Amino acid sequence: MRPPPCGDSRRQQCIEANGHQLAMLYVALYTIALGGGGIKSNVSGFGSDQFDISNPKEEKAMIYFFSRFYFCISLGSLFAVTVLVYIQDNVGRSWGYGISAGTMVIAVAVLICGTPLYRFKKPQGSPLTVIWRVLFLAWKKRSLLYPSHPELLNEYHRAKVPHTQRFRCLDKAAIVDDRAVADENRHNSWIVSTVTQVEEVKMVLKLIPIWSTCILFWTIYSQMMTFTIEQATFMNRNIGSFVIPAGSFSFFLFITILLFTSLNERAIVPLARKITHTTQGITSLQRIGTGLIFSVAGMVAAAIVEMRRRKIANQRNIRISAFWLVPQFFLVGAGEAFAYVGQLEFFIREAPVQMKSMSTGLFLSTLSMGYFASSLLVSLVDKATKGNWLGSNLNEGMLENFYWMLAVLGVINFFCFLAFAMRHQYKVQQYINDGQETELKNGKAETTYDMEKKVSAEAEGEP
Hints:
- It contains 14 helices and 4 strands.
- By secondary structure, the protein is mainly alpha-helical.
- The chain has 3 domains: about 20-120 and about 200-425, Growth Hormone, Chain: A, CATH 1.20.1250; about 125-195, no CATH class; about 430-460, no CATH class.
- The longest helix is centred in the N-terminal third of the chain and has 35 residues, at about 55-90.
């Protein structure tokens, strides 16, 4: 399943991998990607399902869940860039892949053993189908006039989500026309939507502006795994006689993530709770904004370090210490500790309950879009500068200009994020603004779940 070993490619003609061997490699890589997509898009949503947020203690515990969840992910990443990198470089890549496979077998066993303890929520159909139907009916009924009052919309009084005026064009999907007059047709989702369905689609659309401003963060983050590692190969990585692998410098990124994730839980969130007198302390949008600021600072630090590194390398032919890369790892790592948790919490909390897994996928798509955007930017910049910025030999390029460009784009992106964040209404704010007053219980406001349950009960005529 692999080509014969090649001791020295300079002295002998190495035999390349044939089509069957390459096919085997790509099948393995895409299988890993498929499995990763399945895990990542469901594990965080499934984890949050284990908390009953109508219980104040569990509501408080769920806030910490997102931080602890990402803490564990970062531990795995830290293990990968230290122990696994060392094993792959000094023992063999097959051992690295074998250890990874073994840990996944253990993980599956642990997951199965915990099955009797889990809380399961039954699936209620694909959320994409609901979104498509509402958009289709809104377009189909675009020529109809709005009713004189929203109460005339289909199942207005039985809606589980309060009616809002945003994206009013979608309300046409819930207009009861001639075909929907009959009682049996009112329950046919392909003829007329309910107000609940329309409002859930509006919730998803409200996430898109924030989603779009999160992409650039991961474009900046991807530089820590690409160009920053490349920088390390042109720097002095010795500690005595031991040479640190360039890939292992990501250690500083992940150790910073672990540090700030712990600080968030132990110090920052408790302090913010005392100041704001809220359960969350720091809102998800505040976390994201903080992460964006750190990422811009990281690119500024990266540009300054690269300018110094290249100047000394070209003028004195000296390799400066690779530990000069620590500041950019530190700043971007701190940004990720805020941004990842903030984005995950935002997309899960702000999406409709039935669309939790889809909203997690929406969040994860910002990561993939960020990496795609990075590849696109590298290609465009390399073509526009004719290879002068991003040459294979960093000493002959101007990588710092690419970092400065990302910093400027980050500043612009941050102000766009601020504009969207200031206009965003959290779900509980939406209920309050629609006439649902928050009651204080033991000096604390009702949770989002309480508000949702209260609104739903009142809409159905319950006390």
